[in-house]
Each structure stands twice: as C-alpha cells, then as structure tokens.
Amino acid sequence: MQFKDTLRTMILTAFSCLLVFSCITVDKSVGSDYIPDDHKLKMQSVSLPLPVTLKMADSIQGVTTSYSTIGAFRTKEFGVAEFGMAANISPTNTMLDLGKDPKIISTYLSLPLAAVASGGSLNTASVILDPSQEGITQNINVYRLKKQLDSTTLYANSISEDDYHHTLLNTSAATYFGGDSIKIYLDNALGAEILSATAEELDSLALFSERHPGLYITCDPPAGNIEGGRLSLFDATSSFIYLKCNFQPTWEEGLARKDTLIAITLGYGYTLNTSKYSSKNLETDEPLEELPIEGIGGIAPYVDVADLKDVLNSWAAENGYDPAKVLIAKASLVFPFELPENLDIVPYRYPSYLFPANRKFANDTTDVKYYYPLEDYNSTDNPMGVMNRSLLQYNCDVSSTIQKIMNKDKSELDDSYSFWLYPLRSETDSYYGYTSYYINNYTYFNAKINGPKAERHPELQLIYTVVE
User: Between the CA atoms of 449, 357, 71 and 68, what dihedral angle is there, to the nearest 10 degrees?
Assistant: First the structure.
C-alpha cells in the first residue's frame, strides 16, 4: 500500500512539472532592440495593374515526334483555324527484293488516332469545343511536298503555298468521322515512284527522303458559315504509307506471282504540325474588358516588357524607391476570369493551365527559337497557373523573372523578357515521378479571361522589401 502511494506521488509530481514547463512563453523579440533599424527588413505588399494586350505568337514550333495534328474550326470569335501536318517519307526496309515486273495494286495511307499518354495533362486525342461536335464529318486532303523537310522547316507556318503540289494525291474523297483511324487511298503513281528507288537511295534514308519528297495533309474547315470543328491527334510513330504489290519471285524457278505489302514510314526524322489562323485582326494594344485565348499559334494575351517596366518604375518613383534596391519575396501574376452561362463547355474550351511563355533560343549553339514557359515554373510550390474555379482566376508565380525586370534598367530589357499567356501541358515521368511542363501546341481553345478594363483585372501582386 505504501508502495502505491509513493508511486502515485511520483506521477503527480512529474505531471505537475510537465504543466509548469509547458506553460513557459518564449519571447522571440529578445535581442531585437540591439538590431539597428536600417538593418531590419520590413515586408510589404502591393497589387499593380498588369498591362496586357493581344498579340499573335510569331512562328510557334511545329516539330513533333509524338502527335500529328489534323483538323479545322470555325468560330464566331476567331473565324477559321486550320491544322495540318507535313512529313518526309522513308522505307522501313532497305533490302527490298521484289523479283521482276513488280506492279502496284494499291497505295494507301494509314493514320491511327493517338493513345494519349497517361501521366500528362493531355486527356483526349479528339479536341472539340462542344460535345455535339464529336462525330462530325471532315474532308481530309493529301498533297505532295516539293522538297524535303529540313532545318529550315521547323515552325507551324513553315509550309507555304509554293512548297507543295496542289493536285490531290487521294484518289477519292477522304472523309473522317472521328474514329480510331483513317485510311486514305492514294494515287498509284506515288507507289510506282517509290518502287523505282535505286539501291543507293534505299541504302540512305536521308538520300531517299531528299529525292522522294513527303506528304502534306490538311483538313477542310466546316462548310459555309457552320460553326464548330474538331482537331485530331494522330500517332506520329505509327503512321505509314502501304504499297500493295504483285511481283514475280526470282529466288526459285517456277514460282507463281505473289502479293506483298510494303510499309513506308511517314515521318522520317520528325513530323511538322502546321496551322493557319484568321484571328490576327484581333491584335491590339488597347486595354479591353475581355481577352480571348485561342491556343496553339492563335491570338493570346501578351505583356510587353517595356510596358511592364514602366508600371514598375512608376510605382517605385511614387514611393521613393530605387528599383535596383527592391527585393522581391514573391511575385504573382493573377488573371481573373468569369465562367460562361453554359458550364458544360468549360472543360472543352478553357485550359487547365495558363502560364507566361517567352520565345528564346533552343540552345546555345543554334539560331532556332522556340516558345518555353518562363523558367519560374521550376520554383517550389509554383501553382503553375492552374485554373482555380473557386477564386475564378489563374495564378502564376514569376518571382525570379519580375526580380530581374525590376532591377535591370529599361535599356537592358530585350524582347526575351516579354511574354504571352499560354496554355501549358504537363508530362510526368512514370519511373522518376518528375513532371515537365511545355506550351500546349496540341490543343485548340476558345476561352476568355478578364482584361485591363474589367473590374477584376489582371494584376501583378508583389511581396517585397527595400534594401537600404
């Protein structure tokens, strides 16, 4: 009994000590009086209006090894947008032995609809703006290029009217209803030409594609004034021209003539996705209530770095700040939007991500320029401009870029600091789990965000301090 009382006393004593120590208050201000005022960093915040205009992207990249885009739209907002693809051709087998007297029975093109990779933001290979457009009919046209695609043809506007023969290669109307593939019969003259390739050409894929130019495939826009359309993503790695041939074998005597099927790769090296738009007339430097977003190479919100620098300099001058001494803890671009009355169309017309992108050199050893998301996308916990349907806004963290613009003199800022607001797509590595972001040049949109004249207008939100 005495033992139990002693144990109880020890437990109560320990508990009482715990309560006493748990109630100790830590004064985090101890020592602050010894820090000079000019050494303290005072964090402040401000929201500045963002000078957003409308501008077409200049020469968006069209090279791909994944998806070939074919389709067309007509909308009241943007007019007609047309998408096609061009590609070199090459034999899959350099040791063709067709005996003697080979004859072409048929020549046809096979384009399978892509299986969109999992772990990414692309969720469909058939892009439509309204669910009613899913099974519409589209006329596909196949033409012959006049020359090989090379390092001078890398952009969506690289194919001109002079770069292909305007006589159709498809022998009959090729109508596509949005199924899992399309098969188009072509002029047998193409098959006969391929069969006539020399041993030297067959031994060098580069030489073959140089002497036997590839194909250019387009889609007719909706007829008349009909609105709608569809953009289809075909598998660029599984697209072939097939030659069905009949020939006399020569490896043994007395053999009967045989039929065989020869596959010719469509897309030697890469496939070039092309696009044309009629929305350039929407370009303006004037502030608007609404800013349209077309996607791919169409009209897009644009921020000129010179205008942005003027906003920052004016704010700094009003507050007596030296821009070179402003230290930015966080800079967010906020783009509000209003939902349309018909909420069912939002998944079809509005991008999941909107993020600033600029045009810069692909690497240090080339003159080729592509569009990339601003490097800020690598920052930790960046919301990446994901659509926030609760706050009705896209929010992008661009702290590093704004810091550079803030601290540099206006004369030091070239066009590489200007940016377009672009839909993004993501790809996640299934093994390492790393997610990469790219501009989304596979999906057409018809969205709107608020403009500078709207009550909820685009803003640059800063959390900053000034270093004395």
Answer: -150
* The token pair that represents 281 in the structure block: 């007339």
The model's pLDDT over 355-371, given as tens digits with 9 standing for 90+, comes to 999 998 888 778 888 99
DSSP structural state of residue 25: P
CA 67 – CA 61 distance, rounded (Å): 13
Owning domain of residue 397? 44-52+287-466
Note if the pTM is more than 0.85: yes
Query: Do residue 312 and residue 418 come from a single domain?
Result: yes
| End-to-end alpha carbon distance in the chain | 72
Please give the pLDDT value at position 20: 46
Comparing C-alpha atoms, which of 354, 444, 328, 458 is closest to residue 74? 444
Quote the percentage of the chain above a pLDDT of 70.
89
187 & 303 share domain: no
Q: What is the per-residue pLDDT across 410-444, written as a single tens digit (0 to 9) for each?
A: 999 999 999 999 999 988 887 888 888 899 999 99
Q: Please choose, from the candidates 351, 335, 321, 445, the residue with its C-alpha nearest in 3D space to the C-alpha of residue 397.
A: 335
Shared-domain flag, residues 199 and 72: yes
Q: Where among 239, 257, 277 does a domain terminate?
A: 277
Instruction: Tell the burial category of 414 from Cβ atoms under 10 Å away from its Cβ (0-12, 13-18, 19+).
Output: exposed
Q: How many CB atoms lie within 10 A of CB 171?
A: 15
How far apart CA 63 and CA 176 sit, in angstroms, is 24
Residue 338 lies in a domain: yes
**321 and 253 together in one domain:** no
Query: Rg of the Cα trace of the chain?
Result: 31
**Token digits of residue 204:** 């060098």
Of the pLDDT bands very low, low, confident and very high (cuts 50, 70, 90), residue 116 is confident
**Residues 302, 310: Cα–Cα separation, whole Å:** 15
Judged by average pLDDT, the poorest of 59-73, 192-206, 309-323 is: 192-206
255 and 300 housed in the same domain: no
Structurally, how many domains does the chain consist of? 2
* Alpha-carbon distance values, 45 to 246, 320, 322, 433, 460 (Å): 77, 15, 16, 35, 11
Q: Does residue 393 surpass a pLDDT of 90?
A: yes
